[in-house]
Amino acid sequence: MITRIHAKDISPELTPEERAEVEAAAAMPSMFDEDCPEMTPEMLQQFKRLRREGRNKQTVSLRLSPDTLQFAKRYGKGYTSFLSRLLDEAIKDENLVRKCF
């Protein structure tokens, strides 16, 4: 799926040349091929349904160090989902689990 950004979402820290490059890329037409076909409304609906079905999660409260929270927030919007996936993967590593006990 293609995600478009708006000029207001472009980092102000970019150089003028970088900003021009991003704006030129944003103006380019979307190109679809056999590896990345354009999704039909039916395909999108199926994708949304699958995502909802996969949300078998519970909400819990965790205490994190300020440094850990600040580090996670650097990944931007969705950092709580990132932390959830990170914990899902870490809990499968028996050595890491033992180290943290």
* Distance between the amino and carboxyl termini: 41 Å
- Helical amount: 40-55%
What profile does the largest beta sheet have? none
How many helices?
5
- Strand portion: under 5%
Which structural category do the helix and sheet elements fall into? mainly alpha
Descriptive report:
This protein has 101 residues and is mainly α. It has one domain. The chain has five helices and no strands. It has helices at 16-27, 41-53, 66-73, 79-90, 94-100. The longest helix is centred in the middle third of the chain and has 13 residues, at 41-53.
Summary, kept brief:
This protein is mainly α. Helix content is 51%, strand content 0%.
Which terms would index this structure?
mainly alpha, 5 helices, single chain, 101 residues, 51% helix, extended
Topology:
Elements: H1 16-27, H2 41-53, H3 66-73, H4 79-90, H5 94-100
